[in-house]
Amino acid sequence: MKKLQILIIEDDDLQYELYEDALSDYELERATSGSEALLKIAKSIPRLILLDHILDQGDMGLDYLPELKELAPHIPIILVSGALEFQQQIMALQGPRRAHYCLSKPVDLNVLVHTVEVALKECGEREVLRGFEALERSKRIDAEFLFSRSTDRLSRQSELRKLVVDSKDRPNVSALAREFGVARKTIIRDLQELIRRGEIRPEIFPKWEHVDEEDI
């Protein structure tokens, strides 16, 4: 089975050797600066990016987050630094151009390996897929809710029509609202719809197109 590719953006040779030992189960690609990393990603998208903050040529890893996310929007990024203040770490983990995780140096290699495993399993394309699945569930729930409301409304209007169709008096909106357990304005809308559909005569609820505010 082909090993998953991880791009490690790190200029320190000793630190990179530690990563090589800890992440030997993966195919590692290295860049020592942000600009070099962008060139490598343009040629081949990795499955995960490990980004150091202090890089070669005076580059700051945090400054490259937007460009990295632009080229590889669904790829999890683990930011590593011993120079970032707490507030900077929080900012790095927020917004659409964010890192998924932020680890402090010196890095606990066991924590690093675990974080990489979790990121590969839970983030990236699977994260996007879960978002789409949640959206579909939400749409289905909304559709079911709207269908249920529509069914309830039609059933109520059917019963309402039976009560008022032969009446010679204007319906008592308040009494009907109590009977059906809905608001007065709901009964008024039901009467309006019944008249529009021709199921009851307009005379039953005269001037329904200009209902007084007190009726609502």
Account of the 3D structure:
The chain has 2 domains: 5-123, 3-Layer(aba) Sandwich (Rossmann fold); 135-215, Orthogonal Bundle (Arc Repressor Mutant, subunit A), CATH 1.10.10. Helix content is 50%, strand content 11%. The protein is built from 8 helices and 5 strands. The protein has helices spanning 13-22, 34-43, 65-71, 86-92, 109-122, 125-164, 173-180, 184-196, and strands at 5-9, 27-31, 48-52, 77-81, 101-104. The chain has a 5-stranded parallel β-sheet, sandwiched between helices. Strand 4, helix 4 (86-92) and strand 5 form a beta-alpha-beta unit. The longest helix is centred in the C-terminal third of the chain and has 40 residues, at 125-164.
Write the layout of secondary structure elements.
Blueprint: E1 5-9, H1 13-22, E2 27-31, H2 34-43, E3 48-52, H3 65-71, E4 77-81, H4 86-92, E5 101-104, H5 109-122, H6 125-164, H7 173-180, H8 184-196
Parallel strand pairs: 1-2, 1-3, 3-4, 4-5
Helix pairs in contact: 7-8
